[in-house]
Amino acid sequence: QVQLVESGGGMVQPGGSLRLSCVASGFTFSAYDMSWVRQAPGEGPEWVATTYANSGRTIVDNSVKGRFTISRDNSKNTMSLQMENLKPEDTAVYYCNVNKNGYNYWGQGTQVTVSS
Q1: Pick from 57, 56, 73: which is nearest to 19 by CA?
Q2: Alpha-carbon distance 85 to 38, whole Å?
Q3: pLDDT tens digits, 9-67
Q4: Which pairs with CB-CB distance under 8 Å and at least 24 residues apart come from 72-75?
């Protein structure tokens, strides 16, 4: 069965950095596009970034462009999100996501808090 396990969240000051990881199992990781989605308190889910399986292309939302970098290591079934110059508005629970056969799978999420 599909499992997604996020890690790496924490509390940092504005301007700080964090690296999130998502370890996947239960499916052929290299064959699927993978995404990061975040949800701030009281808000709906917000797409952050995607890494495409076939092309290797990555895209990120404009709100994080130039600060966040998404990557994947197919040999380790792992996706990462390097976050630099964090801002208070980046505070959210960050989720790893895969859409497999029309169904969205999610990890348990990892909390990122940016505060002075």
Answers
A1: 73
A2: 17
A3: 999 999 999 999 999 999 999 999 999 999 999 999 999 999 999 888 999 999 999 99
A4: 72/29, 72/34, 74/29, 74/30
Contacts of 3 (CB under 8 A, 6+ apart): 24, 25, 26, 107
DSSP string, 2-15: -EEEEE--EEE-TT
The CA distance from 87 to 76, in Å, is 30
Can you tell me the distance from the alpha carbon of 59 to that of 66, in angstroms, rounded to the nearest whole number?
Answer: 11
CA distance 37 to 77: 18
Instruction: Encode pLDDT of 67-116 as tens digits.
Output: 999 999 999 999 999 999 999 999 999 999 999 999 999 999 999 999 99
* DSSP code at position 30: G
Q: Which of 88, 90, 40 is nearest to 60 (CA)?
A: 90
Q: How far apart are the C-alpha atoms of 114 and 116, rounded to whole Å?
A: 7
